[in-house]
Amino acid sequence: MNRPLNRPRHRRAAALIALATVVPLALTGCGSDSGAASTASAGEVTKAEKGSAKDLSDVCPATVVMQQDWQPEAEHGGMYSLVGEGYTVDTDKKSVTGPLVSGGVDTGVKIEVRSGGPATGFQPVPATMYLDKDILIGAVNTDAAIAAAAKQPTVALTSQLTVSPQILMWDPKSQDGAKTIADAAKDGDPVVTAGDVIPALLESQGMIEKKQSDLSYEGTPQRFVTEPTILQQGFATAEPYIYEKEISSWGKPIGYQLLSEVGYDIYPEPIAVRAEDVEKEADCLEKLVPVMQQAEIDYLADPDWANRIIVDIVDRYQTGWTYSEGVAAYAAKTMTDLDLVHDDPKSGVFGQIDGERMKQVVETFAPIMKQAGTIGSDDIDPESLYDNRFIDDSISMK
User: Fold this and answer.
1) In this structure, how many other beta carbons lie within 10 angstroms of the beta carbon of residue 359?
2) pLDDT tens digits for 175-193?
3) Are the C-beta atoms of residues 87 and 309 closer than 8 Å to each other?
4) What is the pTM of this model?
5) DSSP per residue over 339-386, as a string?
6) In whole angstroms, what is the distance from residue 136 CA to residue 263 CA?
C-alpha cells in the first residue's frame, strides 16, 4: 500500500471475513477463467450504427483496458456498468471482460476492468499504467497524480465521483455525541490512518496535534471495536453500513464527517490516461470520454446490473476481500444522498474538471507531500493534471 495516497480500506478484508456476515449474490452461469458467459440480463442491447458517436470500433483498441485502484466496489460502478451481458472473469488476473455497452448500445469493442490492490501488489495506478501499456484508462486520485507527476504523469479527462467519500469516523458514545472531526478530536484521542496526508492536513488546520497522528491503520475493524475512543479512516459509502449491519461485535451506528468538508477536496478516481496518450489516443478518447461521463449517471439511476457484477466477481476472485449486496446498494444510495456525484458547479456539465479546484488541490497537497518526502518538488503545474477537451458539454445530471 502506498501510504501517502490514503486508501483507507486496503487491508481490512481479512478481519471482515471473521467479523462480518456477508451474503454474496450468485449469478447463474457467470463468467469464469474458463470463459463461460453470463446469462444475467443487462437489458436489451442494440449494435452501434457505423460511424456514430457510440461506435468505438474504428478508433479504439479492440479491448479497452481499464485499471481500478482497488478491488471491485460500488464506488467504481460507472466503470463496471459498461460491462455488458456475456462477460467473462479471469480469476488469475482478477479482471472482468465483456462487450462495452453504453446506454443499451454495443459500442463494437470490449471492455476489460482490472482490479487493483493485491492484484497489482498494492502499487499506485500510475505505476501500473506505465508498466503495462495495454492499459488505456486508469482511475487516478488527484493526490496519486500529484505523487506520480514527475516520472509517471497522468491526465484526468473526466470525473466520476465528484466528492471524495473518505471520512474520519468515531464512536458517538465515546466522543460525547460529536458531530464534527474537530469536536471528536479535541480531547487528544489518536487519529488512526493508513498514511500521513490526512493527519498532516488536519494538523495544518489546527484540528489535531501531531502527537495524535497514528499511521498504523491496516483497514481492519479490530482496533476500533476494542478501542472505541480512537478516530479512524473509512468511507461514507461503506463503513457506516458495515459496522452497524455486518460487524456483529459492533452492531451500532458510528459518527463521522466527510474529509472533503475539511479540505480533502481531491477528485476521487477520475478517468485518466498517461500524458502521452492524450494526443496519441485522441480519436478514441473523443468518443470514449462522453461514454464514461454518461456511465456514472446511468449507474446511479439504475445500479443493479453493475452491483451484481461487482458482488459476483468479488466472490470469484477469492482475495479475502468481501463485498455484500447490501453494501453495494447502500453505497449507490449514499453517493446520491450525500451528493457525492454531481455536475461541475461552474459549468453545469457532468464530469468536467474545475481548473480552480485543481489548482487549490495542488497548492494544498503538493507541499504536504514534499515535506513527507513523497515528491522531490512541489512545483507542479495544475493544468498538466487534467484536460477537458474531450468533455461533451451536453451531458448533465439535470
Assistant:
1) 14
2) 999 999 999 999 999 999 9
3) yes
4) 0.90
5) T-S---TTT--TTPPPHHHHHHHHHHHHHHHHHHTS-S-----GGGGB
6) 31
